[in-house]
Design goal:
With 402 residues, the protein is α/β, with parallel strands linked by helices. The protein has 2 domains: 226 residues, 3-Layer(aba) Sandwich (Aspartate Aminotransferase, domain 2); 104 residues, Alpha-Beta Complex (Aspartate Aminotransferase, domain 1). The protein is built from 14 helices and 14 strands. The radius of gyration is 22 Å and the shape is globular. Bound molecules: pyridoxal-5'-phosphate. Pyridoxal-5'-phosphate binds next to helix 3 and helix 4.
């Protein structure tokens, strides 16, 4: 590992620290032989989709891992959200955080349900239960909490509020596979929870998603809905869509489930190295990753506070990008500042001060089984070195912009 001195920074004219770009969200990939073996079998059997044996096995393993009665695997997390929302008969208005991936809001708006954006708790970055009730109107039918970065929402508070106000509660658990609340795995809260198994997520199926629930009747309904409403051959009993997961995706899911403990161990090790490497830097806070709750440790979330840090978040980002470290802003600037929501609710930001602050501070750093302590040591040295020469870095950025 090279030691970084002043002129070494790429932004000040040195060569980039990494020859190849280091992305956020590089896939976790389990045992390649296992995956290829499953694919060979699939091709021999010529059963590629339509509730094949891999999908059935994947659903059973996920349900067992989470300790939940039903897992219905789907083609992606967005369709899984749309189907869960429809199966739960949400309508009118649904309260959601704005600080989330746009699919949480779109899954509602796609079915002409209005997402009403709620502010977040700046500690956990999840929906603030103290702000929920003031958003409830006669049109409100439910709440969708998002376990952002794998940090579980305030599930007990939300449960209490939705029971008392007779609303439906569900969760977008896209980030939270394996995460826990008081020993209970995410997947067991609300009426249903939705996972994404997109390539960038902790657990991936290439593309994929699932609805999990402990409600037998809801699970039956969702199974019909994701298969055009078919109940056996030639018999359609419900309006449905095509949400099916294919066998190749399930094979990837089975492969990755077999390596899940190794993924967790790699992520935790990496979190530890980031925490050590960034310790003591002014205005740089790494979101704590409590192993009892944020079990998968997938997201390394730094917050750059411009009041204390010698460089702003976007300047740190630019310094990292110059070194081929493709750190990212995430969920910036918030769903309420993207279309169509910013046109529908032009004054939403007035209600979302914490969302705006946090969205302006967050910097997500590379993690996952494809990187290790050596790379992380260099990434932290880049940040340290950039902050140590903040004036030079800012000057270089200004010249670049001109
Ligand atoms: C990734 C993600 C989704 C969408 O999942 P896809 O599988 O990409 O469709 C939804 N919500 C959140 C919070 C996500 O991060």
């Amino acid at each position: 590992m090279k030691a970084l001195v002043a002129s070494d920074l790429a932004i000040l004219g040195g060569p980039p620290a990494f020859d190849e770009p280091l992305h956020v969200g590089r896939p976790n990939i389990g045992d390649r032989r296992m995956f290829l073996g499953l694919i060979e079998d699939m091709l021999d059997r010529r059963w590629l989709t339509n509730n094949g044996p891999y999908v059935a096995r994947f659903e059973a393993q996920v349900a067992e891992y989470l300790g939940v009665r039903h897992c219905i695997a789907m083609c992606n997390g967005t369709v899984a959200l749309e189907i869960a929302i429809r199966a739960l008969e949400l309508k009118g208005e649904v309260i959601v955080p704005s600080f989330t991936f746009i699919a949480t809001a779109h899954a509602l708006q796609w079915q002409e349900i209005t997402p009403v954006f709620c502010d977040i708790d700046p500690q956990t970055h999840t929906i603030d239960p103290d702000r929920v009730e003031e958003l409830i109107t006669p049109r409100t039918s439910g709440i969708i909490g998002v376990h952002l970065w794998g940090h579980p929402c305030a599930v007990r508070r939300l449960d209490e509020i939705t029971r008392r106000r007779r609303l439906t509660l569900m969760y977008d658990a896209s980030h939270a596979f394996g995460c826990r609340v008081g020993g209970i795995k995410v997947g067991n809260f609300g009426r249903a929870e939705v996972f994404s198994f997109h390539a960038t997520k902790f657990m991936n199926c290439l593309e994929g998603g699932a609805v999990v629930t402990n409600d037998d009747a809801l699970a039956r309904k969702i199974r019909l809905m994701k298969n055009f409403g078919f109940s056996g051959y030639d018999n359609v009993v419900y309006i449905g869509t095509n949400g099916k997961m294919n066998e190749a995706s399930a094979a990837m899911g089975l492969t990755n489930l077999a390596s899940i403990d190794a993924f967790i161990a790699a992520n935790r090790r990496n979190q530890h190295h980031y925490a050590t490497g960034l310790a003591g830097l002014p205005g740089v806070r790494l979101m704590p990753c409590d192993p009892r709750e944020t079990v998968n440790a997938q997201y390394v979330v730094a917050e750059i506070d411009a009041r204390e840090c010698p460089l702003g978040r976007d300047e740190v980002l630019a310094a990292l990008h110059a070194e081929n470290v493709l750190a990212r802003r995430y969920f910036w600037p918030g769903c309420h500042r993207m279309e169509p929501y910013r046109s529908y609710f032009p004054h939403a930001s007035l209600m979302l001060p914490r969302t705006e602050e946090v969205a302006g501070r967050v910097l997500v750093l590379p993690n996952g089984s494809s990187i290790g302590p050596d790379e992380i040591g260099i990434i932290c040295a880049i940040v340290r070195s950039a902050l140590g020469q903040a004036d030079l870095v800012r000057g270089a950025l200004t010249r670049k912009a001109a």
